Amino acid sequence: MKRPILLHPDPRLKKTCAPLDDISDEVRVLAADMLETMYAAPGVGLAAPQVGVLSRLIVVDCVKSEEDGPARPIAMVNPEVLQASDETNVYEEGCLSIPDHFADVTRPKVVKVGWLDLDGTPREEEFDGLWATCIQHEIDHLEGKLFLDYLRPLKRQMITRKMQKLKREKAREAS
Ligand code: ZN
Questions:
Q1: Which of 23, 47, 91, 173 has the most CB atoms around its CB within 10 Å?
Q2: How far is CA 55 from the centre of its chain?
Q3: CA angle (107 as vertex; 80, 18 as ends), nearest 5
Q4: How high is the pLDDT of residue 1?
Protein backbone atom coordinates (compact mmCIF):
# COMPACT_ATOMS: atom_id res chain seq x y z
CA MET A 1 0.00 0.00 0.00
CA LYS A 2 1.28 3.40 -0.96
CA ARG A 3 1.85 5.83 1.90
CA PRO A 4 1.83 9.63 1.82
CA ILE A 5 5.31 11.21 1.68
CA LEU A 6 6.02 14.01 4.17
CA LEU A 7 7.12 17.27 2.62
CA HIS A 8 9.91 19.51 3.91
CA PRO A 9 9.74 21.45 6.20
CA ASP A 10 8.37 18.96 8.72
CA PRO A 11 9.72 18.39 12.25
CA ARG A 12 9.64 14.61 11.70
CA LEU A 13 12.24 14.99 8.94
CA LYS A 14 14.66 16.57 11.44
CA LYS A 15 14.63 13.73 14.00
CA THR A 16 17.23 11.05 14.70
CA CYS A 17 15.54 7.70 14.08
CA ALA A 18 15.65 4.74 16.47
CA PRO A 19 17.32 1.41 15.57
CA LEU A 20 14.97 -1.54 14.95
CA ASP A 21 15.66 -4.29 17.50
CA ASP A 22 13.08 -6.66 16.13
CA ILE A 23 12.28 -7.23 12.46
CA SER A 24 8.57 -7.96 12.81
CA ASP A 25 5.94 -8.49 10.11
CA GLU A 26 5.02 -4.85 10.67
CA VAL A 27 8.54 -3.85 9.57
CA ARG A 28 8.31 -6.11 6.48
CA VAL A 29 4.96 -4.52 5.54
CA LEU A 30 6.46 -1.07 6.04
CA ALA A 31 9.40 -1.96 3.75
CA ALA A 32 7.03 -3.27 1.05
CA ASP A 33 4.88 -0.14 1.34
CA MET A 34 7.96 2.09 1.12
CA LEU A 35 9.17 0.33 -2.05
CA GLU A 36 5.71 0.69 -3.63
CA THR A 37 5.64 4.39 -2.63
CA MET A 38 9.18 4.93 -3.99
CA TYR A 39 8.51 3.25 -7.37
CA ALA A 40 5.21 5.14 -7.78
CA ALA A 41 6.80 8.53 -7.06
CA PRO A 42 9.07 7.64 -8.98
CA GLY A 43 12.29 7.73 -6.99
CA VAL A 44 15.46 5.70 -6.35
CA GLY A 45 15.40 5.78 -2.54
CA LEU A 46 13.12 6.39 0.43
CA ALA A 47 13.70 6.49 4.19
CA ALA A 48 11.13 5.56 6.85
CA PRO A 49 10.93 9.09 8.37
CA GLN A 50 9.71 10.31 4.95
CA VAL A 51 6.52 8.31 5.55
CA GLY A 52 6.37 9.44 9.19
CA VAL A 53 7.99 6.37 10.82
CA LEU A 54 11.02 7.33 12.92
CA SER A 55 12.84 3.97 12.58
CA ARG A 56 16.14 3.11 10.91
CA LEU A 57 14.85 1.58 7.68
CA ILE A 58 15.59 2.63 4.10
CA VAL A 59 14.74 1.24 0.67
CA VAL A 60 16.72 1.82 -2.53
CA ASP A 61 16.74 0.71 -6.15
CA CYS A 62 19.08 2.66 -8.40
CA VAL A 63 18.31 0.62 -11.54
CA LYS A 64 16.48 3.41 -13.31
CA SER A 65 15.21 1.69 -16.44
CA GLU A 66 14.86 -1.79 -17.92
CA GLU A 67 17.80 -1.07 -20.23
CA ASP A 68 20.02 -0.89 -17.14
CA GLY A 69 18.99 -4.41 -16.12
CA PRO A 70 16.43 -5.98 -13.79
CA ALA A 71 15.08 -4.02 -10.82
CA ARG A 72 17.10 -4.47 -7.63
CA PRO A 73 14.99 -3.42 -4.65
CA ILE A 74 16.97 -3.46 -1.39
CA ALA A 75 15.50 -2.84 2.07
CA MET A 76 18.12 -2.01 4.70
CA VAL A 77 17.42 -2.18 8.42
CA ASN A 78 19.83 -0.23 10.67
CA PRO A 79 22.14 0.64 7.73
CA GLU A 80 25.60 2.02 8.49
CA VAL A 81 28.45 3.34 6.38
CA LEU A 82 31.41 1.20 7.49
CA GLN A 83 34.00 2.68 5.13
CA ALA A 84 34.04 5.63 2.77
CA SER A 85 36.51 6.42 -0.03
CA ASP A 86 38.61 9.58 -0.03
CA GLU A 87 37.65 9.98 -3.65
CA THR A 88 34.44 11.98 -4.01
CA ASN A 89 31.66 12.27 -6.54
CA VAL A 90 29.27 15.12 -7.32
CA TYR A 91 25.67 14.24 -8.11
CA GLU A 92 22.70 16.49 -8.67
CA GLU A 93 20.50 15.25 -5.85
CA GLY A 94 16.79 15.53 -5.34
CA CYS A 95 14.47 14.23 -2.64
CA LEU A 96 10.90 12.97 -2.67
CA SER A 97 10.25 15.22 0.36
CA ILE A 98 11.52 18.25 -1.60
CA PRO A 99 9.96 17.76 -5.05
CA ASP A 100 11.22 19.76 -8.05
CA HIS A 101 14.36 21.05 -6.33
CA PHE A 102 17.82 19.74 -7.22
CA ALA A 103 21.36 20.66 -6.25
CA ASP A 104 24.90 19.33 -6.57
CA VAL A 105 26.13 17.49 -3.48
CA THR A 106 29.66 16.11 -2.99
CA ARG A 107 29.98 12.78 -1.18
CA PRO A 108 32.43 9.86 -1.00
CA LYS A 109 32.36 7.97 -4.30
CA VAL A 110 32.52 4.46 -2.83
CA VAL A 111 31.07 3.29 0.48
CA LYS A 112 31.01 -0.03 2.26
CA VAL A 113 27.62 -0.43 3.92
CA GLY A 114 26.46 -2.85 6.60
CA TRP A 115 22.79 -3.57 7.35
CA LEU A 116 20.27 -6.24 8.32
CA ASP A 117 17.99 -7.63 5.64
CA LEU A 118 14.31 -8.31 6.30
CA ASP A 119 15.15 -11.80 7.62
CA GLY A 120 17.54 -10.25 10.14
CA THR A 121 20.64 -11.51 8.28
CA PRO A 122 23.63 -9.15 8.47
CA ARG A 123 24.77 -7.97 5.03
CA GLU A 124 27.78 -6.05 3.83
CA GLU A 125 28.41 -4.67 0.37
CA GLU A 126 30.43 -2.01 -1.40
CA PHE A 127 28.47 0.50 -3.45
CA ASP A 128 29.72 2.91 -6.10
CA GLY A 129 28.37 5.84 -8.11
CA LEU A 130 24.65 6.57 -7.91
CA TRP A 131 24.09 3.66 -5.50
CA ALA A 132 26.66 5.09 -3.07
CA THR A 133 25.18 8.59 -3.29
CA CYS A 134 21.62 7.35 -2.88
CA ILE A 135 22.37 5.15 0.14
CA GLN A 136 24.30 7.97 1.87
CA HIS A 137 21.40 10.35 1.17
CA GLU A 138 18.91 7.88 2.70
CA ILE A 139 21.08 7.15 5.75
CA ASP A 140 21.31 10.93 6.31
CA HIS A 141 17.49 10.97 6.59
CA LEU A 142 17.81 8.62 9.59
CA GLU A 143 19.90 11.33 11.28
CA GLY A 144 17.37 14.03 10.44
CA LYS A 145 19.64 15.39 7.73
CA LEU A 146 18.50 16.53 4.28
CA PHE A 147 20.58 17.21 1.16
CA LEU A 148 19.69 20.87 1.71
CA ASP A 149 21.96 20.82 4.77
CA TYR A 150 24.96 20.53 2.39
CA LEU A 151 24.02 23.71 0.51
CA ARG A 152 24.85 27.32 1.24
CA PRO A 153 22.37 28.90 3.70
CA LEU A 154 20.95 31.27 1.10
CA LYS A 155 20.08 28.47 -1.33
CA ARG A 156 18.72 26.34 1.51
CA GLN A 157 16.47 29.16 2.70
CA MET A 158 15.24 29.88 -0.81
CA ILE A 159 14.19 26.26 -1.36
CA THR A 160 12.63 26.04 2.12
CA ARG A 161 10.55 29.17 1.49
CA LYS A 162 9.32 27.76 -1.83
CA MET A 163 8.42 24.50 -0.11
CA GLN A 164 6.51 26.37 2.62
CA LYS A 165 4.54 28.12 -0.09
CA LEU A 166 3.85 24.82 -1.88
CA LYS A 167 2.64 23.27 1.38
CA ARG A 168 0.30 26.22 2.05
CA GLU A 169 -1.14 25.86 -1.45
CA LYS A 170 -1.64 22.11 -1.01
CA ALA A 171 -3.34 22.67 2.37
CA ARG A 172 -5.70 25.21 0.78
CA GLU A 173 -6.55 22.83 -2.06
CA ALA A 174 -7.30 20.06 0.43
CA SER A 175 -9.65 22.17 2.54
ZN1 ZN B 1 15.55 12.33 0.44
A1: 47
A2: 12
A3: 30
A4: 95
Q: Which of 138, 143, 169, 173 is catalytic?
A: 138
Contact predicate 50/6, CB 8 Å: yes
CA of 160 to the centre of ligand 1 (A): 14
In the chain, what are the domains?
11-174 (3.90.45.10)
Q: Give the DSSP letter of residue 55.
A: B
Report CA(139)–ligand 1 centroid distance (Å).
9
Q: Examine the residue annotation and report whether 138 is marked as an active-site residue of this protein.
A: yes
Spatial contact of 127 and 113, defined as CB atoms under 8 Å apart: yes
Alpha-carbon torsion 108, 76, 51, 2, what sign? Answer: positive
Please write down the long-range contacts of 120-128, taking CB distance under 8 Å and 24 or more positions apart: 120/23, 120/77, 123/76, 124/82
- Alpha-carbon distance 21 to 115, whole Å? 12
Flag whether pLDDT at 69 surpasses 90.
no
- The alpha carbon of 46 and the centre of ligand 1 are apart by a number of angstroms equal to 6
Q: What is the mean pLDDT of residues 99-122?
A: 98
pLDDT confidence of residue 175? 82
